[in-house]
Structure formats: C-alpha cells, structure tokens
Amino acid sequence: MKDARDTHRNVVCAGRLYCDLVFSGTGRLPAMGQEIFAEGLSLHAGGGAFITAAWLAALGRNADLVATLPAAPFEDTVRDQIARAGVGASGCAPAPDGTDPQITVALPMDGDRAFVTRRTGRALPDTLSFDGASHLHIGELRTLLEHPDLIAAARAEGITISLDCGWEDTLPPDAGPLIGSVDIFLPNEEEAAMLDAAGMLDAAPLTIIKCGANGARARFGDTDLHVPTTPVRVEDATGAGDAFNAGFLDSWLAGRPTSDCLAAGNRIGASAVSALGGTGGISGMVRS
Description:
By secondary structure, the protein is an alpha/beta fold. It has eight helices and 13 strands. The strands form two sheets. Strands 5-4-1-8-9-10-11-12-13 form a nine-stranded mixed sheet, with helices on both faces. It has a four-stranded mixed sheet with strand order 3-2-6-7. The model is unreliable at 1-8 (pLDDT under 50).
C-alpha cells in the first residue's frame, strides 16, 4: 500500500466550483421591497475545493482541482484564477451547453457574511483520476452525496480522505455513513451543532470543528482538544474555513501532532479573512 502521508505527492481537491461575486461596503443586508448599494464588487474563483487547493499551493504543495467549471460568462475568469493560484486544472471540465452559470453572491459584513448561491449541474466531471495523489479533499458534503463513488475510487489508490461539510438545510440518512467513511471531517461550529442533533457529528475517526474567532477543536476517541487563535481584523470571512482546511491538512500530511495542525489551520484561516474573497489573503499569508 502507498504511503498515504507522503509529502512529495499531490493533494486532489474535488468539489463544486463557483464564480464568487463579492459585494463589499453595503452597510446592511437588503430587506424586501428595498434596494441597497455596494461600494465595491470583485469576482473570484470560489467553492471549497478550489479555495483549499489554492492555499495548499501557496503553502508549497502540489494541488490539483477536480470540478466542473462555471458556465459562460464566468468560465474564463475562473480558469485564469485557477492558473494564477498555481493549481492544476487537468481534472476540470467545461459545463455542458445550456447550463446556467454556477455563481455565489457574497455579502461580507461585521466579521461574517451571507450568501446566495446558484448550484446547478454535476459537481464533478464523469472521468476522475487520482494518479500520483497522496490525499483527496472533498470540498463539501453535497459533492460526496452526489458522488459517493469518490470513496471507493480513493481507497483503491490507497490515499487518505478529508471532507468539509458545507451548509445543508437538511441531512439525508445516508450522510452519516459517508461521513464515517473519511479520515478527517471538518465542519464549522454551526454545522457541527446540526450534525450533533442528527447523531452524525462523531462519525469520522477525526472530527475538526472550526470555531472562527474561538479557534478550533479536534474530537477523536475520548479526546476533545481545543486550540485558540489570535483575534484579527476581519475584512471578509468568505472561504476562511477552506483556508483553515489547507493549513490543517498541510501539517497533518507532514505527520505533525494534532495540536500543531489546529494551530496551522487557525493561522491560515486568520490570513484568509484579511482580504476580500476566499484567496485574497494569500499574498499576506502568515506561515509560522
């Protein structure tokens, strides 16, 4: 069997790929029957898989993305940002003709953000390849629910698997067994509360709960380990959890202790919130 934590091999990140339209400086959220005006608008490649891959690449890892590209007129923008992030895109495929663009409108405000998302078509291409990979990261639970074959395909290659949760209004019964089939599960605090109520929170061998300004927790066996973080000014929290994933996984794949992995995740997550967009903070990333 391959050494699943070989630091010299690729991480494959699979999941839905969006173009994020980030409206900044709105001051408040819109109310029915009213209109608000934003001071700024920026477009960013988005989706948990891409954001994690981009931060992994910034940390010096080979990261490949497996995803269906957003449809026109956003495909070229997203392709360009994937290339500039240094992320491999050979596993990406164009959206089928006639598909609506897959986009997210993000409204950052007061250290948090709200989203409106159009999710359409298949998350992943029909053909998947994990050749040369040491780890598979799945960007959100919805992608795994739509493509449960990811687990068997990754295990056949002898590689480890991590899974972010992503927001789900309802949790289908088959979510629990799928969560239990990965090595690391990475929900945020709100998602963890919903999962706990459904009896699914501790299904995976290692569960990492991202708590924002309160740092992060690791749950495994009888252990509940908390590592705090240093408060920072928040410009935009979009993608902070996905950046945390990259910091945590980079350390975990290097065989470091769980407490160090949590600290690395906190550090990269803090870098992410310093700028607009899920990858905007990479240029100011704090490495140690």
